[in-house]
Amino acid sequence: MNFFSIIWCLIGGASAWNLATFDDSGLQFATNNNDYEIVHVSLFYVRSFLTIRNLSNSSNHHITLIESTWPENLLPIQSRIFPNELSHAKHKSDCNGIVKTIQTAVDRTDGHLWLLDNGSQYCTPKLIVFDLLRSNIEIHRYLFTDLKNDALKSIQLYIKDDMDANNNAIVKRSSTATTYALILIHQSKFLIQYSLSDNRPKKLFLIIPLQSGAYDILIAAEITIKNNDELVVKDYNNNLWIAKLNEIKYSSIQSKNIDLFVEVKFLGPLLGSANALAIPQMVDDIDQYMYYYLPRDGAVVRWNFRFPGEIRAEGHEVLYLTKSSIVQIVFGAKASSVWIVHAHADEIGDHCRRILNFRTLNGSRRLFS
């Protein structure tokens, strides 16, 4: 039996993933579709990188990242293990290899793919960076020796210059600027900020200023980036907060082990328990939307940041209803479409489906209007 495959099909003018079986270099793996689920997808133009999870205890293989074609590409790329089979651990104590990919992020300015590996009970979590423009070679690696396995949760990238004389971060979109990763840790009081030039993780605390002059620390459940200059945060109570990346400052409170801090502003509560927050990086749009998923209702909704006041139900639009669990909302390689990614195949066998274009509503409707 074979391990894993991605077969492309054309449905309604857009191709979509369908997990089936294929023979890749003669490797013999489990073949049942139900043995695997998609955890995360990242894009580099028409190349897609799928983080997968093996749900079967019968397989002793631990491939957790594959590369394939993004559905909008009319010339499919052969699906394959990324970057190659030898880069993946053969067992959970093979710590030099990729043990457990949890998420990836791609910097389109330099073609670097950042990979979070959550390790195992034997292996430390790590960050690995690959150069997609130079045959997918590994160019950087960092071991998070202070973290337990499965501590890493997600990664977001943004671009900025170094701190200026007043300790303010100057946000830029120049190709010469530095790319920074913001790494979310499960139930942590801080994020990790990391860059290839620093080669050292810095603890970034999200500060809620109080009227007394003191402050609280916001614990993030999910993060995303808006227009490369703002950090959007969902807390564990499904409240939404925002912070300006150019206001990240070095801390003088060394005794509390705070490297960096930034103040957050309260935007309001979301419409319920939510996940899959996503914001298209289209700074020239008149409207700036945030998309998210409400598992209770099976609804994909969007909210306009330009809507006056705090987050309210009347500022939302329902875009799509589904019975299948959604793990991610993705914006197309052509920067003109919104897609949803299912962990498991939906009712017609797809794992990825386009739901609308940015500049059209495609039948969307107001929520609770």
Decide which structural class fits the backbone.
Answer: mainly beta
Major sheet size, sense and barrel closure:
8 strands, mixed
* Dominant shape: globular
**Uncertain ranges:** 1-15, 21-31, 360-369
Percent of residues in helices: under 10%
Strand content: over 45%
Query: How far from one another are the termini?
Result: 52 Å
Average pLDDT rating: 81
Number of helices: 0
Radius of gyration: 21 Å
Number of separate strands: 32
Report on this structure.
It is a single chain. With 369 residues, this protein is an all-beta fold. The protein has a domain at 274-369. The protein has no helices and 32 strands. It has strands at 5-6, 9-11, 14-16, 19-20, 36-44, 47-54, 65-69, 80-81, 101-107, 112-117, 126-131, 137-143, 152-163, 169-171, 178-185, 191-195, 202-209, 215-217, 220-226, 230-235, 239-244, 249-250, 260-263, 265-269, 275-278, 289-294, 299-304, 316-321, 326-331, 337-342, 352-357, 365-366. The strands form eight sheets. Strands 13, 14, 15, 16, 17, 18, 22 and 23 form an eight-stranded mixed β-sheet that branches. Strands 25-26-27-28-32 form a five-stranded antiparallel β-sheet, with no helix packed on it. It has a four-stranded antiparallel β-sheet with strand order 5-6-7-8, with no helix packed on it. A hairpin with a 3-residue loop joins strand 20 (230-235) and strand 21. The protein starts with a strand and ends with a strand. Residues 1-15, 21-31 and 360-369 have low confidence and may be disordered.
